[in-house]
Specification:
Chain A is mainly alpha-helical. In chain A, 74% of the residues lie in helices and 0% in strands. Chain A folds into two domains: 83 residues; 197 residues, MetI-like (MetI-like fold). Helix content of chain B is 29%, strand content 22%. In chain B, a hairpin with a 5-residue loop joins strand 1 and strand 2. Classes of the chains: A mainly alpha, B alpha/beta.
Chain lengths: 365, 354
């Protein structure tokens, strides 16, 4: 009896590997298939998130006391103008009609968004919201992007080192450093950098580092421009790296430690694979998988924190613009900024999701 | 690569384990010895089963032979002498890092207990084969196609369809398929020794059978030696020429399969065999052995089995019995037991199983 069983070919896997799944897919009508496609589902959800956030920002902005006219009139009365006069001047100089009903403002905003038109700013005459954002956002995305990238690469590497050397001196030292860095708010790190590194130790001139570009440097794909941009972004980037690297180190250590206990790592050692091959393809790759989703979270946290950091370091990014928009009740600018920032974070999430499904064959559909 | 059967047995044992202790670090200054003074010789072509309750040190010993213990574990005493394909005898304990890497899988491979997770989930099966071959081929970098062809032959040996298995990821294969794929991978470099740790435990009965059949067949064909770690006495009886019983970290009885199943001299072996109900025939109720093995950190000074032993005497509480040869034979097949009363009357094993 036993020989019979052994002689029969292996039974087909009832769980149905990739092939079976594809066969089923062929029978579904094409439109349904696109609709339920993994990427499309994610994109659909991203749109819903952006739409909801757009509405929230619209109403939250208007829930703040006072409108743009009130704010400007308030300033003018301090110069000795009477309230009525000040209001008249404000209404004249601002592109905002305080008597327009809420629903028409809402419709203008939402319909504008659908055609990718975010309207004009209220406080910056002649400048559209898109132009204002376009002038500031790239710097923020650049500094945060580079910071996130450096922090993740370094954090993953150090986390792996900590896991491989766990319970040794190096691990203990790095754990303390990581915990401290994770606990300090990013704007404090920025202040410490300026006062400590710039003023006490004199490593750099914090005044010279202000702004996004040195005067006279023209944007373009030149070594001078890239170098100068990096020079001015150095402090924000270092701040962002220090702010999030601790978390990445600790999370990667935990993840790597777990993977090191997996059977396939022991089997890989038994198979006589070289240490480097095991560390990268067997340990590293599997340890990073559960962390991919956190890339987007890191990015989102940083965009929020950028407002403070950019103020402290006098970096001309989107943070100062957002603060202005709030202070002057520049509704269209505020809405535009928040929608764009949300879109960036949602996009980062989307990329992380898609990346994850690329990296982990078990998620692929 | 043509299968080259190991050199004839005349040269002596393939594996000679002498007085091996394996321990784990449990704290800053505390250690726990999980295997005490293990000694046995394994001759080319032999298949030896290690049996015993959970936690008695079987897996630790198996891992120790290849120095694959987790970070806290070390082989702390003794010698693990292995005769390499080249004919040189080496002590696995003293192999340098790179030497040890080349030794593993090429000379001795291991099929693990959790074969479910033996493969890297993000790599295709073909990449596991490529990785394995490439790690052991020095200068010449063979073309991918050539290695895959050889891998396909290996998979056919265990009756798997290479066209289905090689391009798949591990999660797309069933447990039985993965287990057989691991056996195929283990034989890739024609090792002289295959260590199998509970190779069939997680499989359903039918798959277990086919794995056992294939192992028997492969062993006849490729003539590798086996060390076989198992709870399953039936499996031991079927696949092994000889059996070693372990209890509380010590080998307490070794001998041929026939010796242990029909003429057990250690009361623990006898109880272990007695606890398995026979599949057919006299359906007596199996008697479970009362109590459990002693904690490894609190071993009694005498015989570690004494607290549970039906024939323990005063002497047993004070003197620890050494493994004593009762019936000498060549090629490591002597019947030996570590019991002060081993010379007494034969123990009831309710013979006949299997």
């Amino acid at each position: 009896m036993a020989t019979d069983i052994a002689a029969t070919p292996p039974p087909p896997d009832p769980g149905g590997g990739a092939t079976t799944a594809r066969d089923d897919g062929a029978r579904v009508p094409p439109l349904r298939r696109i609709w339920s496609n993994y990427v499309f589902v994610k994109v659909r959800k991203a749109f819903v998130v952006v739409f909801v956030v757009a509405n929230v920002t619209f109403f939250l902005g208007r829930a703040m006391p006072g409108d743009p006219v009130d704010v400007m009139a308030g300033r003018l009365t301090q110069g000795g103008m009477s309230m009525d006069e000040a209001r008249a001047v404000a209404i004249n100089s601002l592109a905002y009609d305080p008597d327009a009903p809420l629903w028409s403002q809402w419709w203008e905003f939402i319909s504008g968004l659908a055609t990718l038109d975010m309207g004009n700013t209220i406080n910056r005459p002649g400048q559209t919201v898109a132009e204002a954002i376009g002038a500031y956002l790239p710097w923020t995305l650049f500094s945060i992007g580079v910071g996130t990238l450096v922090a993740i690469v370094l954090g993953l590497a150090l986390g792996m080192v900590m896991a491989y050397w766990r319970n040794r001196v190096l691990d203990h030292v790095l754990s303390v450093v990581a915990s401290v860095l994770g606990a300090v708010p990013n704007y404090l790190i920025a202040m410490l950098l300026v006062t400590g590194g710039g003023m006490y130790l004199g490593w750099f001139d914090p005044i010279d580092l202000r702004g996004t570009l040195s005067p006279g440097v023209e944007p373009g794909l030149t070594a001078e421009f890239v170098g100068d941009a990096l020079y001015h972004a150095a402090l924000p980037i270092v701040t962002y790296v220090l702010a999030i690297i601790g978390t990445w180190m600790l999370v990667m250590k935990a993840s790597t430690t777990e993977v090191l206990g997996e059977d396939y790592v022991t089997v890989a050692r038994a198979r006589g694979l070289r240490d480097r091959r095991i560390a990268f393809s067997y340990v590293g790759r599997n340890a990073v998988l559960p962390l991919v989703a956190q890339i987007a979270i890191s990015f989102g946290t940083l965009v929020g924190g950028a407002i403070f950091v950019e103020q402290v370091l006098v970096y001309k990014g989107v943070g100062g613009l957002l603060l202005d928009a709030v202070n002057y009740r520049d509704y269209p600018l505020l809405q535009g900024l928040l929608v764009i920032i949300t879109t960036c974070v949602v996009l980062a999430n989307l990329v992380a999701d898609l990346l994850y499904s690329r990296l982990d064959p078990r998620i692929r559909t | 690569m043509t299968p080259t059967p190991p050199a004839p047995a005349a040269d002596g044992p393939l594996l000679s384990v002498r007085g091996v202790d394996v321990g784990y670090r449990t704290g800053r200054r505390t250690r726990l010895t999980a295997v005490h003074d293990a000694s046995f010789d394994l001759y080319p072509g032999q298949s030896m089963a290690l049996v015993g309750e959970s936690g008695c040190g079987k897996t630790t010993l198996g891992l120790g032979l290849l120095r694959l213990l987790p970070r806290t574990g070390t082989v702390s005493a003794g010698q693990i002498l292995f005769r390499r394909k080249s004919g040189d005898q080496v002590d696995v304990r003293t192999l340098a890092k790179e030497d040890l890497r080349r030794f593993r899988w090429n000379e001795a491979a291991m099929v693990f207990q959790g074969a479910m997770n033996a493969f890297n989930p993000v790599l295709r099966m073909e990449e596991h084969f490529l990785d394995t071959f490439r790690a052991h081929e020095r200068r010449t970098r063979r073309p991918r196609a050539e290695i895959l062809e050889e891998s396909a032959e290996l998979l056919e040996m265990v009756r798997l369809d290479p066209a289905r298995v090689l391009p798949s990821h591990p999660h797309e294969l069933s447990g039985g398929m993965r287990q057989r794929a691991l056996i195929a991978l283990a034989l890739a470099l024609r090792p002289q020794l295959l260590i199998l740790d509970e190779p069939t435990t997680a499989l359903d009965v039918l798959t277990q059978r086919s794995v056992v059949e294939q192992l028997t067949e492969l062993r006849e064909r490729l003539r590798f030696s086996m060390v076989f770690i198992t709870h399953d006495l039936g499996l031991a009886a079927e696949l092994a020429d000889r059996v070693g019983t372990m209890y509380a970290g010590r080998l307490i009885e070794t001998g041929t399969t026939r010796d242990l199943f029909h003429r057990a001299r250690h009361p623990y072996t006898s109880a272990l065999i007695g606890s398995v109900p026979p599949v057919a025939g006299d359906r007596h109720v199996p008697e479970p052995l009362p109590g459990g093995p002693p904690g490894l950190n609190a071993l009694p000074p005498g015989c570690s089995f004494e607290p549970r032993c039906p024939r323990a005497t005063e002497e047993c509480t004070a003197t620890r019995p050494e493994l004593r040869v009762l019936h000498p034979r060549d090629e490591g097949l002597s019947h030996a037991a570590a019991c002060l009363h081993a010379d007494g009357a034969e123990l009831p094993t309710r013979g006949g199983h299997p």
